[in-house]
Queue: 2 jobs
Job 1
Amino acid sequence: MHKVTSEELFQRALNVAPGGVHSPVRSFKGLDRAPVFFKKAEGAYLTSVEDKKYIDFCQSFGPLILGHLDPEVKEEVHRMVDTAWTFGATEIYSLELAEWITSTLPFMEKLRFVSSGTEAVMSALRVARAATGRNKILKFEGCYHGHVDNLLVKAGSGLAGAAASSSAGIPAEVAAQTVVTPLDDEQKLQEVFHNFGKDIAAVIIEPLPANYGLLIQTQEFLKKVAELCEKNGSLLIFDEVISGFRVGLQGMVEKTGIRPDLVTYGKIIGGGFPVGCYGGKKELMNMVAPSGDVYQAGTLSANPIGMRAGLTTLKKMQRLDGWNVLEKRTQKFTDAIRAGFAKKGVPLEVSHSASLFWIHGPSKTPIRTIEQIPGNQGATFKGLFLKSLEKGIYLAPNAYEVGFVSMAHTDEILEQAAQAIIDAAE
Ligand SMILES: *Cc1c(COP(=O)(O)O)cnc(C)c1O
C-alpha cells in the first residue's frame, strides 16, 4: 500500500494555506526540501508520517520545557478535558495559576492571562501608553516581540532611531511610532533617548534575545537600558515570552536583578497550550478593564486546559529543580559538540545560555548584535540542518532560531544527538 509522504502532504498544504503553513518558519523556506510532516510526539522525539523518529530540539519553539506529552501534564490535561473546556466566566483554574505566579514572582503583583505572546506584548504596550500618555515605543534590532504591527519594524535611514516597517501592510504612520536601536550599543541608545526620550512610553526588550540567534547581552547594557528608562520616565517592559520559566524560575528578572515595570510571558506558561500573560506593577495593571479604562479582552483567555498544563509544568519544574538540571545537561551537551567540532576541525561554534543553544560560524567576539552574526550563517546552517535531519535530529528549520533542551532530553539522548550533529557537520 502506498504510504503518504511529507512531500505529497506539502503539495496539498500549499493549496490551502499560504506557503503551506500556519506560521512562516515551519515551511523550510530556503532549505530546498519539503518540511517534514509529523504525526506523533513523545518526550524528546517526533515521529514523521514516514515513521522516521527524530530527536526534537525545536520543542514547538520553546513551550515544551518538560518535553512532549509529559505524563503528569497529560494526566492533568485529561482531567480538565473531562471537567470543562472553557467557561467564559470566573473559575478556579486561572485563579490558581495567577496566585502561584504572583506568590512565586514578587514583581508580578497583578497579571492578566491572554492566548499568545503577541497578545501579551500588544496589551502591555497599550498599558504603557495609557500610563505615560506617550505614543512611542523603543525596541532593539534583533529582538522579536510577536507580530504586533508597531513592532514589525527595522532601522530606517536618517535620524538615529527612525524606524521603517519590516512587513507589508503596516502603515508608515504606525511604524513611525516605533523607535529602533541596535543591541549592545550604549552610545546609540543614549542618542535615541536624546532624540525621542520624552515621547517614549516604553522600552521593550528581550532580556535574553533568542529570536535572531542567541544574542546574549551584557549586564552593563541591560542596566543602562533600565537607567535611561528611569531617567526619561519611560516604562521598561521585559519580553520574557521565550526566556520566562526557561532560564530559571524567575527568568531574566532574577538573572539580571533588574526590575521591569511590566513583563510578558507565553510559551512555557501554557505548558504546550495557547497561553500568554502580561503583568507587573499593581498600579499599572489596575489600569486594565474592568478596573481601569485600558480595554483588553479575550473569549478564550485563561483557557482552563492551558491553565492546568501551565501550572502542572511549572510546579514540576520547581519540584525537580529542573532549571539546574537543564543548565547542567545543556552545558555538557554543548561542550560535547564543541569538542567534536574542534577535534574534526569543523569551523562552527555553539553559543548557549541555560537550556537554549545556537550553532553558528566562527566569530572572534561574542555575538551580541545582528551585525556580528557571520554573513554565511544561512548557508552554513542549511548544510548542517539537512545532514542532521538525515541523521534523525530535528533542529528548528531556520538559521536564526535557537535550539531547546527539555527535561525529556536525557544525558543518553543528548550524547547520541551530539554525536549525530558532529557527524552531520563533518
Ligand atoms: C514567541 C515570542 C513572542 C510571540 O509569541 P506568540 O505566542 O508566538 O505570539 C513574543 N516575544 C518573544 C520574545 C517570543 O519569543
Job 2
Amino acid sequence: MSAPFLPFTRPSIDEATIAAVVQVLRSGWITSGPRVLEFESALAQRCGGRSVRVFNSGTAAIDIALKLADIGAGATVITTPLTWVATANSILAAGALPKFVDVDAKTRNIDVARIEAAITDQTRAIMPVDLAGLPVDRDALYAIANARGLRVIEDAAQSLGASWRGQAIGSTGDFVCVSFHANKNMTTGEGGALVLPDDVDPKLCERLRLQGVTRLPDGGMEVDVLGGKFNLTDIAAAIGLGQLASLDEFTARRRHLARRYFERIDPALGLELPLADFTNANWHMFQPLLPPRIDRGQFIAAMKGHGIGIGVHYPALHLFSLYRRLGYRDGDFPVAEDIGRRIVTLPLFPAMHDADVDRVCTALAAVLS
Ligand SMILES: *Cc1c(COP(=O)(O)O)cnc(C)c1O
C-alpha cells in the first residue's frame, strides 16, 4: 500500500474549534458579533495591547491600511517583487504605483540596503513582506522610514507567530497587516487583521470596513466616508480564536520540522536551503531553490509521482503582464527573478510527522540524483 498524498500544507483545526463554530451556527447570530470582538481582543493582547481590527481577507487589511495612510494617486510605495501578488495589487488598487526593489539572496526579502536609493519625492511608504515568515530587519527598515518620513505598511501576512529581536511581529511598528487564509500559519478560512498605529482612529478603520456606517444611539445612522464590505463573520472568528490559542504550538512544531529538513536533506543534491533562522522565523514555508539544471515543472511532476505536493511561492511578480505594462522588464531584479524561477515549497504543516519529512527527503534524493 502506498502512503497517502502529502500536500505542501494543510490546516490543523481541533475538535474544540469545530464545536465553537457549531455553537456560533446554533446561536442565531452568525455574522460579525461577539466572537469578532473577542477575537480582536485576543489578537490585541498578542500584539502588546495595540488596536487590532479584523477583516474578511488579508488583502482587505492591506487595502484599508493604504486608505488610512492616505496613499493614493501620485504616490509610490516601495516593495518587493518576490511576494504573493496581493501586495502589489493592493498598491495599484489604491491608485498608487509599486516601486520594486530587488531582494537579498540570503533572506529573499526586500534588500533593505537598496531601499534608500529607490526613494523619490513621490515615495510615501515602504511595504516590506516577511517571505515564508522570515522577518525583514525591522531596525534597518524603520531607521530609513523614520529618517525619510515614510509610513511603513508591513505585509506580515505570512509572519504572525514570528518575532524580531524578541518582539512578536505585530507588537511594534506602524501598520501591520496579517492574513488568515487557509494556507497561513493560523486561519479563519479566509480573513485578515490590521494592527493600527497610535495616530489612526480605530473607529475610522471600522467605518472603512463596513460601508462607512456609524450607528447612532437613537437607532439611526450616519455615513461620512466611503467604506466597503470587509467585515469578518463570527463563524470565522470562532475558528480564529481556536487557531490563535494553538499558534505558539504550531510555530514550535514548524520549527522542529524545518530543523529536520536541514538535518536530512543531502547537501550533495545541490539544493540551496533557506536561511536557518530558528529564533525569529515562524517557518510559514520551507523553500529550497532547485539547482539551475533542474526543470521545475518536471521536478514537481516527479515529486507528485512520489505522492508529495510541491508549491511555487512565488515567481517574481514584476514579470506578470499587468506589471510589465508599467514598464518592468526581465533583468530589472535579477536576484528575485533567479529565486522566482528556482524556488519550490516543500510540505510543512503542524500535523506532519517526522517520518513525513524523511519521506520527502527520500523522494528528493530519488528525483534529483
Ligand atoms: C496571503 C497573503 C496576502 C493576502 O492575504 P489574503 O488573506 O489571501 O487576502 C498578502 N500578502 C502576502 C505576502 C500573502 O502571503
